[in-house]
Design brief:
about 15% strand, two-stranded antiparallel sheet, single chain, 8-stranded parallel β-barrel, 13 helices, TIM Barrel, glucan endo-1,3-beta-D-glucosidase, globular, alpha/beta
Length: about 400
């Protein structure tokens, strides 16, 4: 009976440990905010210290600033570098230029700075028409990959970032989704082959807010993860029910990759979020309340590790857009604010999974591991004691009582 209880404890603990360690890596994007008159620019060291203090696992640097890359040296924060779009044609046409960029932005800091992935461009194809696709994009990726290998760096993956709205014309139902025909064949198929061959990830920017605004059939509750018995959309082809817009969009990407025979490539959501302020008064859903609700629910969803209906583990990494507000809320703006921090680096929300709860999560995991090894020790001790007793205390002869008349 005791052994059975211990085995049950081990099974529960092992399941708990495996489910917590398989959760998606959650990071943030960062680019230099717009300057505010009379204010001092935020130093790279201050940004890095804030990221570490918030226990953020990874940062996507939209501006590959060498000073910012250096600021993360010696930390355990994974760095996702992005190469600006104007450089991409030069990288494609000149291997020496690619080698020079890699030397100055990667080799000079790696491995002290934990660079994990490089995106060659950001939504490059949106600047070109389907009749004139950027065929140079794959060559640029290959040159960056070759430059890394020539410098003896083999653990940094190379990819490029696409925007959902640029390559997936129809998100619902996800099972019927496929990449836009022109760019799909000319650009995306060869890139998928490159990613498969190099064990790299397909990177996509997902914007639930814009999808919600452009479709009257999507409710605000479905977009921000609100739980309700009627809050779902059913894919009639598969019978799968989707309870949030984020999973639906991720699975549309996975279905599109499957059409091209590459459904097993890992997916990184390079950007997602919800704005806390809009461009005009008509954006009534761009508020701190909805933004906080979306971000807290998204992080909780990813932490549970339940994945999506088509991808058990879900995306391997998700980057929240973005770390710091671009614009001063006291001044007129021409774009939305998406930051989880304001210009003074003050938290706008208490986000589960990015601050104190991350420490609690780590403590819980440690406690579960202690219980796991303690249970193993108890079983081993129990069996050893039983074996020792049997070995040193041979069974006594059975005395038979003879009944006398």
């Amino acid at each position: 009976m005791q052994s059975n209880l211990l085995l049950l404890l081990i099974s529960i603990t092992a399941i708990a440990i495996s489910s917590t360690t398989s959760a998606t890596t959650i990071g943030v994007t960062y680019s230099n905010p717009a300057p505010i008159y009379g204010s001092v620019p935020i130093s790279p060291e201050k940004i890095a210290a804030k990221v570490v203090a918030m226990n953020i696992q990874a940062v996507r640097l939209l501006d590959s600033n060498p000073e910012m890359i250096r600021a993360f040296a010696g930390t355990n924060v994974a760095i996702f570098l992005s190469i600006p779009n104007p450089m991409v044609p030069l990288l494609a046409s000149n291997l020496s230029f690619a080698s020079l960029w890699v030397y100055h932005n990667v080799f000079a800091f790696y491995p002290r700075t934990k660079i994990s992935v490089i995106s060659v461009g950001d939504d490059v194809i949106s600047s070109y028409s389907p009749d004139d696709p950027p065929l140079f994009l794959l060559r640029a990726m290959q040159n960056v990959q070759k430059s890394l290998e020539n410098l003896g760096i083999f653990k940094i993956s190379v990819s490029t970032t696409f925007s959902f709205s640029s390559i997936v014309p129809k998100a619902f139902p996800p099972s019927s989704a496929q990449f836009e025909q022109g760019n799909g064949e000319a650009i995306i198929r060869p890139i998928l082959q490159f990613l498969e061959r190099t064990n790299s990830s397909f990177m996509i920017k997902i914007d639930p807010y814009q999808m919600y605004r452009s479709s009257s059939s999507i409710t605000i509750g479905f977009a921000i993860f609100e739980t309700s018995r009627f809050n779902f959309r059913e894919d009639l082809a598969t019978g799968v029910r989707y309870h949030n817009l984020f999973d639906m969009m991720v699975d549309a990407v996975i279905s599109s990759m499957a059409v091209m025979g590459h459904e097993n490539i890992p997916v990184i959501v390079a950007e997602t979020g919800w704005p806390s302020s809009g461009i005009d008064a008509g954006e009534i859903d761009a508020t701190p309340y909805y933004s906080g609700q979306f971000l807290r629910s998204l992080i909780g969803h990813l932490r549970r590790g339940s994945g999506t209906p088509l991808r058990k583990g879900g995306p391997s990494e998700v980057y929240i857009f973005e770390l710091v507000d671009k614009y001063d809320p006291e001044q007129p703006v021409t774009s939305r604010n998406w930051g989880i921090l304001d210009h003074s680096l003050t938290d706008k929300y208490q986000l589960l999974g990015l601050k104190d709860s991350e420490t609690i999560f780590a403590i819980l995991l440690t406690v579960l591991e202690i219980f796991f090894y303690l249970a193993l020790f108890m079983i081993a001790s129990h069996r050893f004691i039983g074996w020792y007793i049997r070995r040193n205390d041979p069974p006594r002869p059975i005395r038979r009582h003879v009944r006398r008349n």
